[in-house]
């Protein structure tokens, strides 16, 4: 019946009818629900490579969620991390990192090198992190490599790391020498009032996961995405 009416309609009526159909098609297309993620993009793969500050950190799920929302893309974070370990151990784990074929590698490996009882000298730590960065860059040339400084230490955990600042500086220098990225989370931690900081890191080394997510994740999202998505 509609087709018959269009057949009998004048040219002006036909053009109006076709215009109305086109308008309705556009309206339906624009109002269709979106998936929330960029189409045809594989997940952004991140490897967090480090010590207990990563293994026990608890900030990775929040990074997946917030960075994914910012980029409108699925984000997956895998850990290659172990409590109490040093750069000596990390040198034996490079195959595991490479096997993940990450787009981004987040690295924090200075904390236990800096403890007095592990006897990893500053020069050895610097040599090790340089070798780690070189191997990762050679085997994963497209990956973004981001070296990180995490939270401050206090109490006994701070006393056994009297030269931790030098270890951080050495790791930062090795990253910068290779044109790699460095993110320092300590200033954001140190903005907390002293009582809040103590409560957030009750053992002097390992932040509570919920607080770690609030401090670490926004900085990483901003750094990785290149914009502030916190609003």
UniProtKB/TrEMBL annotation:
Give the transmembrane region(s): none
- Annotated coiled-coil positions are none
Question: Which CDD domains does the annotation name?
Answer: SGNH_hydrolase (cd00229)
Keywords in alphabetical order, please: Hydrolase
Query: Per UniProt, what is one GO molecular function of this protein?
Result: phosphatidylcholine lysophospholipase activity
Does ATP-binding appear among the keywords? no
Q: Do you know which InterPro entries this protein is assigned to?
A: Ester_Hydrolysis_Enzymes, GDSL, SGNH_hydro_sf
Q: Protein transport: present as a keyword of the record?
A: no
Organism superkingdom: Bacteria
Q: Read off the PANTHER family from this record.
A: SGNH HYDROLASE-TYPE ESTERASE DOMAIN-CONTAINING PROTEIN, THIOESTERASE 1/PROTEASE 1/LYSOPHOSPHOLIPASE L1
Q: What's this protein's name?
A: SGNH/GDSL hydrolase family protein
- Which organism does this sequence originate in? Rhizobium vallis
Print the organism lineage.
Answer: Bacteria, Pseudomonadati, Pseudomonadota, Alphaproteobacteria, Hyphomicrobiales
């Amino acid at each position: 019946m509609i087709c018959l009416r269009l057949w009998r309609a004048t040219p002006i009526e036909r053009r109006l009818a076709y215009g109305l159909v086109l308008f309705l098609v556009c309206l339906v297309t624009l109002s269709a629900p979106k998936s929330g993620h960029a189409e045809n993009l594989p997940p952004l793969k991140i490897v967090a490579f480090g010590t207990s500050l990563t293994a026990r950190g608890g900030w990775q799920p929040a990074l997946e969620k917030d960075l994914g929302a910012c980029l409108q893309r699925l984000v997956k974070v895998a850990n290659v991390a172990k409590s109490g370990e040093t750069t000596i151990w990390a040198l034996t784990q490079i195959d595991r990192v490479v096997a993940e074929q990450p787009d981004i590698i987040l690295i924090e490996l200075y904390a236990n090198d800096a403890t007095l009882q592990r006897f990893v000298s500053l020069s050895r730590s610097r040599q090790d992190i340089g070798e780690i960065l070189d191997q990762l860059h050679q085997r994963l040339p497209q990956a973004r490599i981001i070296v990180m400084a995490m939270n401050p230490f206090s109490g006994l955990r701070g006393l056994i790391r009297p030269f931790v600042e030098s270890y951080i500086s050495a790791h930062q220098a090795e990253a910068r020498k290779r044109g790699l990225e460095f993110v320092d989370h300590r200033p954001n931690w140190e903005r907390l009032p002293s009582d809040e900081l103590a409560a957030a890191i009750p053992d002097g080394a390992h932040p509570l996961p919920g607080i770690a997510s609030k401090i670490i994740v926004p900085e990483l999202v901003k750094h990785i995405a290149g914009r502030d998505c916190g609003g």
